Amino acid sequence: MSEAVIAIDGPAGSGKSTVARALAGALGWSFLDTGAMYRAVTVEALARGLDVHDAGALAELANSVTLTTLPRVTVNGRDVEDEIRSETTNLAVSVVAANPEVRRAMVRRQREWADAQPVGTVVEGRDITTVVFPDATLKIYLTASLEERSRRRGDEDADSVARRDQVDSSRAASPLRQAHDATVIDTTDRTVEDVVGEIIRCLTAQRSR
Ligand code: CDP
To answer: Considering the entire predicted model, what is its pTM?
Structure first.
């Protein structure tokens, strides 16, 4: 694994992507949005007319697609940056992400990607602190009130956000949960800069131990 990994998990709209991107920028590290990977596989499955409950077909797809998340989210070279946030994708992604074979394929790619990073990397998702990088340099769990989280999601209503949280937290394969050694930060009413500052202080404290 890359010399340093900051792993960030949390429910929808807790601020993971925004905070992780700003944190990576402040440190001069790379950044990986693993949710975009599950979303891109979902978009491709729907484009091919696959049934997202067809575990075998989804596993085969997850193992064979070419994915990028930066500078744009692409699947097999097709730009899906806009499509990954659609209502249809929001509805289907948690089903796709509950498939253990799909997860295995994504986790393998996430670890390979981190291995290839020259300095450090910030990785965010649902199972990063618990499954993907349990030995991360620093583990953070971001949270916020449901009202605030659905306000941040903008075009996704509170019911949809709550439904995704429920599916993500109750699934058998790598459910969303707080790692026992993660630092929990409630981002309700806090600015991105403030949260990034707190994480950098945690990193400094961790390294001086
Ligand atoms: O941006 P938001 O927090 O709403 O979601 P996201 O990070 O884009 O993730 C979309 C969906 O992918 C989640 O609702 C999970 O079902 C799934 N996911 C996951 O299972 N594991 C991850 N490491 C990242 C996302």
So the answer is: 0.95
